[in-house]
Amino acid sequence: MFCIILTSYVNQERKDMYLERIKKWLKTGIDIYLVDSNNQGFILTSSNYKQFLFDQSKEEYYKKYKNNSTHLELKSILKIVEHFKLTEKYDFIYKITSKYYFDKYNLLYDTKGFDIICQCRRTKTKQNSELVGFKSDKIIDILNFILKVDKIFEEGLNIIKNAYVCKNLVKIKLKERVRRGNRSILTYL
């Protein structure tokens, strides 16, 4: 059994987009956990939805990492995993950036035998992290390792995935085109 953590920083500009994507994920019947590091979130009632809201700018580590969104995302994932004790409830935990949704979520069910499942998109030095899944008993150690080596999420994933049983998913077409933080537009994961 697995769940999906949707990572977000909800603000006025992104609020409608995030809400639209979350509602699509809820229709899948998969357990969805939203972590919002801007303490906003959404008022949604669904048996497969929980959210963890906090203001990341008030956290001790914020000053050190405020210009490193991937470190902040790693900290957010660790917070929600620990808050809801997700490692005790699920065999596998996926992290998906909240602005993305895809219809081929059936690809997420084949977790047996894998420690890490990554999206298709990658380079020689970086494993993209818009979609990544971890075996529950490994997630905390893996994320803490990436924080410890002080690399961005994508570089840390690329380093550590060779030490685990890992697979990359096939190319997954996104339902909507969304501009990323670096101004590029992803059409697939």
Structure commentary:
- The protein is an alpha/beta fold.
- The protein has a single domain, classed as Spore Coat Polysaccharide Biosynthesis Protein SpsA, Chain A.
- It has 6 helices and 9 strands.
- Helix 1 links the parallel strand 1 (2-8) and strand 2 (31-36).
- Helix 3 packs antiparallel against helix 5.
- The longest helix has 15 residues, at 69-83.
- The two termini are 22 Å apart.
Q: Counting H and I runs of at least 4 residues, what is the number of helices?
A: 6
Strand order within the widest beta sheet = 3-2-1-4-6-5-7
Q: N-to-C SSE series?
A: EHEEHHHEEEHHEEE
CATH architecture: Alpha-Beta Complex
The largest pleated sheet is described as: 7 strands, mixed
Q: In total, how many domains does the architecture comprise?
A: 1
Radius of gyration of CA atoms, rounded to a whole number: 15 Å
Estimate the mean pLDDT confidence: 93
Which structural category fits the helices and strands? alpha/beta
Which CATH class? Alpha Beta
Number of strand segments: 9
Uncertain residue ranges: none
What is the third-level CATH name, the topology?
Spore Coat Polysaccharide Biosynthesis Protein SpsA, Chain A
Morphology call: globular
- How would you name the CATH homologous superfamily? Spore Coat Polysaccharide Biosynthesis Protein SpsA, Chain A
Helix content: 25-40%
